[in-house]
Amino acid sequence: MTETEPIVVLAQASTPVEREIITRWLREEGLGSEHRGTPTQIDLDVETVAGKLVSRTDDPLVVPVRVLWLPPERDGTRRAHVSDLATLSNPRNPNRLMQRWIVRNAPDRHRVLTGEPALLSELRKRHVAAAGDPGARTFARYIHRTAVVALERSERSVIGDRYKVPRLVAEEILDAPAFRRELDEIAAQTGITSDEAYDRAEAALRELVAVQSRLVTDLFTQAMSPFHKRAWTVHADETGLAELRGYNRRYPLIFLPSHRSYVDPFVLGDVLARNDFPPNHLIGGANLSFWPIGPIARRSGAVFIRRSFGDDEIYKAVVEEYFAYLLTKRFNMEWYFEGGRSRTGKLRPPRYGLLNYVAEAVRSRRVDDALLVPVSITYERLHELGAIASEQLGGKKKPEGLAWMARYVRNQQNSAGQVYVRFGEPLSARDRLQAHGDVFGAEPNEERERRAVQRVAFEVAVGINKITPISANALVTLALLGVSERALTLPELQAVIAPVVKYMDERKIPKGDIDVLGDRTRLMSVLDDLAIAKVVTAYTGGDEPVYSIEPGQHLVAAFYRNSAIHWFVNRALLELAILGAAESGFTDPLRAGWDEAKRLRDLLKFEFFFPEREKFEEEMTEEMLLVDPQWRSRTPSVDEVLEKLTETGFFMAHRALRSFFDAQLVVAERLALRDPSVEVDKNALLDECVAVGKQMLMQARLHSPESVSSELFTTALKLANNRNLMGPGDELLGQRRAEFAEELREVGERISKAELLDASNRRNAPGGYR
């Protein structure tokens, strides 16, 4: 660069103080020895850039400059604090009086930033390549956006990636030629003008786009953290997060956590912030956008999407474009792909809508790739389970609002123990879509693309289950829910749990702090905490304390148990397959056992995430080898296998699967009683199942209150529909419905046999109940 090369400084200054600081800095320190021309200083706004820069015929070096204001340093960090509000000024954007005070009294709280410089000719070339529009006005907007982004990047090098926030999003999307052409096409198809389509798109973007504020992020985090820290002690396995940060330099990350509580985003957000990840764009339903949480959350990165788009093609286009924009700019996202909190404690079937937007962005090459990160968030206890249990029994979900928020905050006053956060192996969206048959660049095929997205979602769910640890409360409720309403002493409870823990060790299942269960005093403490939460009841009037599930709290207890239940499904299926083989009159009982396992797997395919059949057989073989390590080298009889199974010290079928099969039986019997020629009203049938399920429970035809659950009945209806049992149809349909009900009764009888064998085991074990 020669001495005469011109330089234009784009000063982002909103007050005279900031202009003075920049002018003095340029005079005293300047842009460094490599920038030796005399700078021309102009304001960084579209009008000034359009009038004083874009029409120049020379080729100046354009350098964006701004003043960075910092909060006071506290405990080694600079974050806005509630006490800063006493100054009536934002410490990251102080008013002019506060700016002058800082310059005089706290000079360490401000510094001058420069963004990456570029020649005007290079900026013009990039603009034409991106927008295809050489117009002066759009070029000025492009320079403005580019300068702001460059300054944001420079600022993050000082304050850290956790404060990475998007700027001028709506403006950049609306200026994109491809998006404007799409709006023109929608306008032509729907009979509106292009201007009206543009205005509606702009309104949708203003509604949708997260307008993140660093001040609000700091203050909101500080306001909510005390409640959550009082309620939980967070144990986060941060192994691999450094590698994940490395990936994030090239690709956007999409965190897909299990969803069990409204507090999930706060727990995950705290963990990521501690590890200097930029804030996620949290995608949520518009039902949570109520005042004041909605406006605050939007300024902390929340994106509220309407539950239903209907036929609003413009809104659909805006959502798709916004997703593509965030991915292209490498902003991380987070959403709960189950579509809502789990009502049962286990993962719900995934929703595919938002994943479709990611797939389309990758498929269309808007973004090279995106990494899907499975995240497991597991709680020892939750304060919101009473409402969830009520909904499963037919109660109406209370709408979110100020009263709801007040109840939520009040409930966080009590300790709820541990919460475990685990991160799974990231999945390449591009690689996994292609592995499941999505052919990029080929003619669109909706069915093929739909199947690929569904299988990717399945892999994410499996990834979440794979890292979900078993908590102490999960094991305690697993034990107490499986003893037919009876109360257990501490030694009896330990006798139930011990062989299950041994099995967990053999399978290397991840676990929380379950060592406490082997110590009598610490186990009593776990039970006392569950008693305070009204999940367990303790009777202390006899020779020694006994513990059982609190009456009316079976659904709550099942929630804790179900967080771990996926780890025991294959074991439970193996038990039922062996019992089925023992009952069969076939000459090949082994084949009968495998067939039974596959049949049961098919009955549960809407409840659990089973692998493809070949992989399923491998997993079942591994389960069999845990029961009998020499199984492959000999041909044992069914009785010998059953004996080996009994020697493991526990049966799991009645603990893990009974509630699901019982719920299916309720649905099957109600369907069998219906006229097959009449169309089924699903909502009415669900209400009927809840009412009749309560009756069957009182008649002891169901084995536990946890079976009476609208969530389980809904999934059972999916199974019935998958088997073409919903109708309407002819008399053959009625016969198939009756056969379905009978099939489930037979499964129930087999589960009862497993329970009897388990009870016999417990009576004969040291410390077992008599």
Automatic annotation (TrEMBL):
It is a peripheral membrane protein. InterPro entries: GPAT/DHAPAT (IPR022284), GPAT/DHAPAT_C (IPR045520), GPAT/DHAPAT_LPLAT (IPR041728), Plipid/glycerol_acylTrfase (IPR002123). Its main location: membrane. Coiled coil: none annotated. Keywords: Acyltransferase, Membrane, Transferase. One of its GO terms (cellular component) is endomembrane system. Residues 253-380 form the Phospholipid/glycerol acyltransferase domain. It is found in: Endomembrane system. GO terms for biological process: lipid metabolic process. It is an enzyme of class 2 (transferase). One of its GO terms (molecular function) is glycerol-3-phosphate O-acyltransferase activity. Its EC number is 2.3.1.15. Belongs to the GPAT/DAPAT family. This is Glycerol-3-phosphate 1-O-acyltransferase.
